[in-house]
Design goal:
By secondary structure, the protein is an alpha+beta fold. It has a single domain, classed as Aminopeptidase. Helix content is about 35%, strand content about 30%. The protein contains 6 helices and 8 strands; from the N terminus they run ββαααβββαβαββα. It has an 8-stranded mixed β-sheet with strand order 1-2-3-4-5-6-8-7, with helices on both faces. α4 links the parallel β5 and β6. The longest helix is centred in the middle third of the chain and has 15 residues. It is globular and about 45 Å long.
């Protein structure tokens, strides 16, 4: 893999760029402090802006490492911050990029998550030279699976009773993926 770090990406409607310390305010207001959003993620909702600022400070430090791939997502038209998307580092040395994303609930169902995911897939295969891209979601969040499928990932497996949601309920972890070969075959035939 080519560890080239986070670079700015664009789609028709969106800008994906490195996070800045000033983004913490919009992130806190748009999704980090939301009960609805935090229901579907592994982290707890932020109780204060200071908590979000601390996370964003750590994110900015991580950009020094060229194996960091993390973006905030903005609407081109308004420059409004709507979410974030990143790559987990846990399997990078094996050519595997696990994608995680989070968007403010008022930006759901507008196609932004799918549009962003497709652009990140393109970047990871064509510039970073990843071998496989993986996405996971808890079974209580089927909308996230729809995003993954629309972005080109295929259902892989269900890990039964793997995670607890915010209410302590056991959830299956649903796994999707796309390989480099599948991506290029689709691109050539599309």
């Amino acid at each position: 893999m080519n560890f080239i770090g986070t670079k700015q990406l664009e789609t028709e409607r969106l800008i994906l760029r490195k996070a800045t310390f000033n983004d913490a305010i919009d992130a806190f207001n748009n999704w980090c402090s939301s009960d609805v959003v935090s229901k579907y993620v592994m982290w707890e909702k932020h109780k204060s802006l200071e908590e979000t600022k601390l996370v964003y400070s750590k994110w900015m430090d991580a950009y020094k490492e060229m194996d960091t791939f993390r973006w905030v997502v903005l609407l081109k038209e308004t420059k409004e911050l709507i979410g974030s998307i990143d790559v987990s580092k846990k399997f990078l040395n094996f050519g595997t990029c696990e994608i995680g994303y989070c968007y403010g609930e008022k930006f759901w169902n507008h196609g932004s998550a799918t549009e962003t995911f497709k652009r990140v897939i393109e970047f990871l295969f064509e510039e970073v030279d990843a071998d496989i891209i993986v996405g996971e979601h808890m079974s209580n969040n089927p909308a996230s699976g729809k995003v993954m499928m629309k972005a080109g990932l295929k259902y892989e497996t269900k890990l039964r009773c793997r995670v607890n949601d915010k209410f302590g309920e056991k959830n299956d972890l649903i796994v999707y993926s796309i390989t480099k070969g599948e991506y290029y075959k689709e691109k050539c035939n599309g």
